[in-house]
Amino acid sequence: MGIQNFPASLQPIIQQGFLEREFSQALRSRLGYRACADRITVAAGIGETLTKTRAGLKPTVTTPLAPAANTNFDNGLTPTSWGVEQFTITINHYAATTDLNVVAERVAIASVFLQNAYVNGEQAARSLDELGRNALFAAYMGGNSRVRTTLASAGPTVTVDDVRGFQVVFVNGVQQSVSASNPMTVTIGSNAYTLVATTVDTTNVSTAPNGISGTLTLSSNVSVLDGTAGNTVTAANASSIVRPSQRTNTSLLTASDTLTMSCLLDAVAKLRLNAVPEIDGAYNCYLDPVSARQLFADPDFKQLFQGATSANQVFRKGMTNDFLGLRFVPTTEAFVQSHPTLASLMVRRPVICGQGALIEGDFAGIAAADVAPADSIVSVVDGIAMVTREAIDRLQQIIAQSWYWIGGFCAPSDTTTNSTTIPTATNAAYKRAVIVEHIG
Fold this sequence. Notes:
Shape: globular
Number of helices: 6
Radius of gyration: 27 Å
CATH class of one domain: Mainly Beta
Organism: Rhodopila globiformis
Protein name: DUF4043 domain-containing protein
Distance between the termini: 54 Å
Helix content: 10-25%
Largest sheet: 6 strands, mixed
Strand content: 25-35%
Number of strands: 24
Structural class: alpha+beta
């Protein structure tokens, strides 16, 4: 048969002349975000959304019981209870497939079947890693924004670049939409205001990664001075973001605001203030190669290793592990964006994660008997089902190689952890990760 009769995608791999009988693998992304997720199983038959409840702690008791009050049946004690908070994880179905003509596969230079399996597996792994990354950054960029359009005159509405973190408040541990009865305190410019409503723009113009532009409605007028474009907008329970030179929002970063060891130590300090547990003895720091290169150029970093016996090994490998409480995890999946206002500059975002920063929910029925019968070819690898379907076309020549995953990711909150239970705790609703923004 003529080569032109094969599908266009198969024509380049059919032997013409002398070709090496194997495939060279394409470049593949370096993954890692999924490693910081706690894995849970979502049982079958309970719907598509699972709400989990986390118990809080009670405040310490430092006042002795007065002898005069130690009477009656209650001994002078007033019962107290611990708080709870809830987080929700929603499972969805993700899948992809590739067809293979077994006749065409016979004349290819190497096994197309095995190559399809490899490519499908890499696609599945990268897809789940990006789902985890997106859930992580959506929570830990929340409550940090800036004014997008300067007010013409004092008024109660302000347009902002990203409304994530301004849409819900926690009431008794349960997320409720921001409203007049469930307000949120936000700082715009230099003053605090009471947020009573959040509206998402019909056309999204946010410059933040996966950001959502919109409008904040306050209970009182915002001054023109506070409502000037570029001013920082911060929720009272905003997630912690570390920037060089104490910059308060992304647009204020300048060309000199590169990654330093000081930024990473500040991020570690914030996690430890909240008593966030480590992951196997250290916090995971996910960063791209440019961020890593800047770190090695930092004078404090170089001085730390000057004359150290481990210096040669550190610089030879170009990366360190378990250093200053950090485990550096290189990734090519980090969010990189153009600077909102300065041309030719890029904003990079390493993220430092503690245990429980992410929750991964895997559906228990992925490979159940009624989903994957005994005579089917279904293999579950790390929670992902790899499926090979037999040829069912008229000539029995075309098989399908597919993968699917049923599950979801979420970032759980820690609102019950506060200064009454952990004196150094911050007010952030999400405490188990810290993003570092810098220019690179």
